[in-house]
What we know:
Layout: H1 2-12, E1 29-35, E2 40-47, E3 54-59, E4 63-68, E5 73-77, E6 92-97, E7 106-109, E8 117-122, E9 127-131, E10 146-151, E11 157-163, E12 166-171, E13 174-179, E14 194-200, E15 207-210, E16 214-219, E17 222-227, E18 242-247, E19 254-260, E20 268-273, E21 278-282, E22 297-303, E23 309-314, E24 318-323, E25 328-332, E26 347-354, E27 359-363, E28 366-370
Antiparallel strand pairs: 1-2, 1-28, 3-4, 4-5, 5-6, 7-8, 8-9, 9-10, 11-12, 12-13, 13-14, 15-16, 16-17, 17-18, 19-20, 20-21, 21-22, 23-24, 24-25, 25-26, 27-28
Amino acid sequence: MKRLMAVLAPLTGLLVLAGNAGALTTPTAEYWGIADGGVFTVPTPTPVPVQGHIMQVATSNGAWYALKHNGAVWAWGAGQHGQLGDGQLTNTLRPVKVAFPTGVKIAFLADTSPYDTELAVDTTGQAWGWGYNSNGQLCNGATDEEVSPVKLPFTGVTALTGAGDHALYVSNGSLFACGSNNYGDLGIGTTTPSYVPVTVSLPGVTSVTSSWRTSGALVGGTYYSWGYNALGAVGDGSTTDALTPQRISLPESATMVRLGGGGPLDGQTLALLSNGTMWAWGSDTYGQLGDGGSGSVTSPERVSTPAPYVAVESDGEASYGLTASGHLWGWGSNRHDQLGNGATTTQLTPVILVMGVTEVSATAAAVIALR
Length: 371
């Protein structure tokens, strides 16, 4: 798992540790939180009932996903909009196999995906999607639900992401967006939505991230952000929505950035820099910036961490940091069991959630960790 993930990480922005690359243990996964606002509630980390070698985990707001080493994808959670991809509209905590056409093998999943939707890329670089698609996030010119995976109009895909009602795709070296655009989510200078791909004028994108109505991209070590900014999630020092990508000032190059947010009352950004420090900005309503609860911050601020993080993840009201030793730390709101400790108390500073972790994904309040 480690050797393969080391190859994929620069392309997908996955949360990966170098750690025990020579280990012979088979990776397992645990999940917790809520699915789609309460369809299912899982208060503490629960083993994923998927047999075999899990290579990657991912989330949408309503479901959890596991990619196996053979290229098959399994899904569980809310399925009322087809987001489980098995051809049904059923909610279940029993994993079902996503129904890709015969011969299709998936190389990686989007770390996070649009509302009740999931995105994937196969071993040829072809993008696939399924689920709600209510605002054309699948870029296929329609808003129809897709209960099984369909090919998307993107090949040569090296990164993709989605949240809320929009999605971003890096295809053959160019950045494309589609979906709703009420707050400039698509980064094209207008608030006009699009059900087909539109080009974002930002060349050289190496990874992408997204939250409810905000988008972000790394160009090498330089971070750009745009979209919803009422609580400062863009990070340009203002609370004005950004209709085009804004270069965000950071003291060193960024190695990983994660946006989080599930609605107009939250939204935060976490960034890891090349010098090993973590910086954060945006909403701090629930202490999700990890600075002890300062209130909203419109420009990047340095946040002290209990140990250097090698990866971060940011969801609607909580945040997560992963250390080289495999300790997964969490902080912020816990009212939807995001911290997985069986309590509902807000945590203003980081606490250890799970140990032995190599990857984590979180969207809204659905969380999954690979161990």
